[in-house]
Amino acid sequence: xxxxxxxxxxxxxxxxxxxxxxxxxxxxxxxxxxxxxxxxxxxxxxxxxxxxxxxxxxxxxxxxxxxxxxxxxxxxxxxxxxxxxxxxxxxxxxxxxxxxxxxxxxxxxxxxxxxxxxxxxxxxxxxxxxxxxxxxxxxxxxxxxxxxxxxxxxxxxxxxxxxxxxxxxxxxxxxxxxxxxxxxxxxxxxxxxxxxxxxxxxxxxxxxxxxxxxxxxxxxxxxxxxxxxxxxxxxxxxxxxxxxxxxxxxxxxxxxxxxxxxxxxxxxxxxxxxxxxxxxxxxxxxxxxxxxxxxxxxxxxxxxxxxxxxxxxxxxxxxxxxxxxxxxxxxxxxxxxxxxxxxxxxxxxxxxxxxxxxxxxxxx
Amino acid sequence: xxxxxxxxxxxxxxxxxxxxxxxxxxxxxxxxxxxxxxxxxxxxxxxxxxxxxxxxxxxxxxxxxxxxxxxxxxxxxxxxxxxxxxxxxxxxxxxxxxxxxxxxxxxxxxxxxxxxxxxxxxxxxxxxxxxxxxxxxxxxxxxxxxxxxxxxxxxxxxxxxxxxxxxxxxxxxxxxxxxxxxxxxxxxxxxxxxxxxxxxxxxxxxxxxxxxxxxxxxxxxxxxxxxxxxxxxxxxxxxxxxxxxxxxxxxxxxxxxxxxxxxxxxxxxxxxxxxxxxxxxxxxxxxxxxxxxxxxxxxxxxxxxxxxxxxxxxxxxxxxxxxxxxxxxxxxxxxxxxxxxxxxxxxxxxxxxxxxxxxxxxxx
Lengths: 364, 364
Fold this sequence. Notes:
The structure is a homodimer. By secondary structure, chain A is an alpha/beta fold. Chain A has two domains: 26-260, Type I PLP-dependent aspartate aminotransferase-like (Major domain) (Aspartate Aminotransferase, domain 2, 3-Layer(aba) Sandwich), CATH 3.40.640.10; 263-362, Aspartate Aminotransferase, domain 1. Helix content of chain A is 34%, strand content 17%. Chain A has helices spanning 23-34, 51-68, 82-94, 108-117, 230-235, 245-260, 263-284, 312-321, 346-362; strands spanning 12-13, 74-79, 100-105, 122-128, 150-153, 155-156, 161-162, 173-176, 191-197, 208-213, 288-290, 301-306, 324-325, 336-339. In chain A, the strands form four sheets. The first copy, chain A, has a seven-stranded mixed beta sheet with strand order 2-10-9-8-5-3-4, sandwiched between helices. A three-stranded antiparallel beta sheet of chain A has the order 11-12-14, with helices on one face. The radius of gyration of chain A is 21 Å and the shape is globular.
């Protein structure tokens, strides 16, 4: 039997972000670039004020509302600049300079959020897992009643941890959900504001979903540039200026796909099954061990190392030869990271598990 | 002979932005979404840190430098948020609160730039064409020596005017070139900073090109959020956070196309020919008249009205039936606007001219 070259092997995309998108979404996304709906024009060259794209924006908002169960007191925005822009834009809009916000530091992204927030108000880091390289989610800390909001990073892409339960508090939550939005149901009533860069569970790079409880706005004293004021974008339906048309379009296609899969509750069941399959192998296989505390393991980003670090290069090669892409761990954790977002089918996870088993046989 | 339905007629895309892209660029852009370079992955799902996309970013920067003749003292960035973000980001980075910047107000976009700039320093509007609905470019005004910079909008998409000559001054220029960048050569030595939303002459919506003379940075006293500091993006090669991968990729393809066409000097000759063809018809045809002062007419956005406004609806219908898209004028000017950016071939302009002639015959 003739063996396949690496280029011919079907790729399993475990990249942390930009990340795998559903195959049907990619097909529709490519077709719309060539000729959108038989219009004779590419979606890349149509007006953002035309009724065709306006209906895309409306559908993207409606799907967000439906999938997450949003009530009318929340606004849905599609902005740009990623979560990194939200790190300061949140505080600029909702935290006055004499107010206090509490942050739980669960990794690189929380750390960056805290740094930017400090430009705008009193920031208290009330808990941190930095002492063990962010390998767990802190618990049992006090959340002061005077906190204007509590900021959480619901899933930590780099260390592979995830909040499976929210802290018990009445303080409203501002949450960076970049890497697990639409992967599980949420209780929207607990949140004042949610933001998420698209390029993990939502779409390609280039747009940022922001969900805001409208009544928290308009209360800070500082002057805010027009483009940085959430109210601007609420008033103009995410089209105050030219929005990132194509990233929003592909995100809308992905949300349609999530809905067709049965919504976020069905996604959660699939994500649990995928995560269980991979973590079970990590725990069973004597060559591997998980990098994150078992109870805080992320369903999205599975981090693991080899018991014998000298085998890492060989395992990376074996996985790469089998078509696995993007499994090298972040330099701050080392080892490996398999990102298994919504769009990753369980069959893709099985390919990785098979490689791990074969690798164990060869290195017994 | 069977007549074609409207959907079957080849479209001529005169949209103001997002706007026409070269047909070859659209073809390559669609192929890369389906399968990028035979990698088995869509460009929408690859890591922005991978060598393939890093080389796209590098080529985009190199092409910008080559096409515009940039020297090493300028940095080239691909950001997000459009020109509307640059309206405040420029001043936040380079204008201290006690410094003065001078603005020439040539339309809607200049007006917005002035509004945002006022949050950061002393802003003097030294000239304006508001008195005649921005239908001309002001001339003969004084530019005070104490100005830290002079802000211009080089082409005014809505009113259809364009600077064909820079003001005679030693004051460095900050320029919004969103709608005419890469359409003609520039003398880079006159500029401290140039910004341009991609969605006219550069690519699809979703990225913003910023060109900065590096030595103007680091001199203001205010604290700047990390993402709003140009230096952040210079230090990280436009990848401090996840950049808008696909909009940058398509912009790079478009710059390759501009280079293959002979660069910006060749583009200028083609743009002059296209503009002359259309303005000549506007001046010749008794039914039409140009909306902008003849000497300040834009080569990119040709604005015109009908001598008899009651014929406007019929002309719009005639043009639409012939496949012309996006020629309705902005509500603040009325009439029509044909945007004939780089990617519009002269044959497309000829289609519109033919319709105007036919319309004149029918309405003689």
